[in-house]
């Protein structure tokens, strides 16, 4: 693992200084991002996979990663820099018939992979069995209720893996089609390895709830809504009390802030102090002060960084989380070529220290295939995997070659 040094408090302190100098404006919407420097010197490698790859995550097992491939869970051997697809574990047909496997998470104890499939359900897979290619690796399906939503997209577990929080992007008629966070309590695996769970309830947020992230201390869940559901183009970042979410989800919301146009993914710095969000239709990476998200929302936005077109996934890289990569999806290129036809895809590399100093922080863009969507970093911090949803590719990025 990357050593955890005490740069964090300094970082938040320095970021807080920027906001003291002048309020940071929430960015509006933007169509195509300005061109970025082309980072062709970064070492990458790619493989093609048999279906559109969505969520990707490394296992705790040595040299293994998992990727959601629509009707199967792909198992990657990552012992070499260029990964290889070694197994496909079929996902249960009734749940993957509409959109297929999407979001993915590894439980903190490394035993299970959780996969969403734009349905009511959460699919539970035994990580060791999957790594070994065992066809009985699917050990459970937690099926929720239509009321909470039937468009499960991302999932996060509590630190003790006793609860799973699923973003139900579009909610249901009962929620006024506002998205929700649906809560499941996970039971300990039975002697035969099967995992069951109970549905607890849900919390209604704004429209199109997708990205979720747990604070490292396990107390707060952050979630993004693409629009606030109150007639504005801006979306929101919501701050949610994890203890309340476990017992009384509908009362768990602490606060919301506006978070640019179409915020879709969120990550939390290891020191718990800075929350980073991709605002997709703003082509921006936003940094928020975690404590001000609760105490002083109007001053919570610390920085807004211009990245590439329609960023989705984001991930920390490098020692002390000094870099952030965003997956610039340009995902609407095929839907609206007249607007997006000239835009490129890639991974913007953002220098966190330059964000602190208030300087130009975007170091350029690493070229990718089409619609780069999600990112994962290897346990040793050396390799990042990218799912190129549009071009059916998994790309590896050599972290040591980043600028
Ligand atoms: C960046 O470089 C790559 C590799 O040389 C090239 O294929 C791509 O077209 C370049 N992109 C831009 C936007 O110049
Ligand atoms: C991964 O590939 C390496 C090199 O081919 C091989 O030695 C290793 O056994 C493979 N691991 C698994 C889990 O298949
Ligand atoms: C899962 O639950 C939903 C909502 O209750 C239900 O409509 C659906 O039939 C269930 N799926 C299966 C395969 O049992
Ligand atoms: C596994 O054990 C659980 C709990 O005892 C039981 O409900 C389930 O039917 C068993 N499954 C199989 C495949 O044996
Ligand atoms: C947060 O936003 C949601 C969705 O727009 C709204 O229902 C809720 O009242 C807001 N809560 C706060 C505390 O602002
Ligand atoms: C919409 O909701 C957001 C988040 O709760 C709030 O900041 C914003 O002021 C609201 N806009 C309107 C027009 O009510
Ligand atoms: C795309 O590039 C072409 C050629 O440079 C230009 O004519 C066209 O206006 C551009 N389209 C957009 C939407 O910027």
TrEMBL record:
Signal sequence, start to end: 1-23
Q: Which InterPro entries would you find in this protein's record?
A: Host-pathogen_enzymatic-act, N2O_reductase_N, WD40/YVTN_repeat-like_dom_sf
Protein name per the record: Uncharacterized protein
Instruction: Recite the UniProt keywords alphabetically.
Output: Signal
Organism of origin is Lepraria finkii
Q: Which PANTHER family match?
A: DIHYDRO-HEME D1 DEHYDROGENASE, PROTEIN NIRF
Q: Does the keyword Chloroplast apply?
A: no
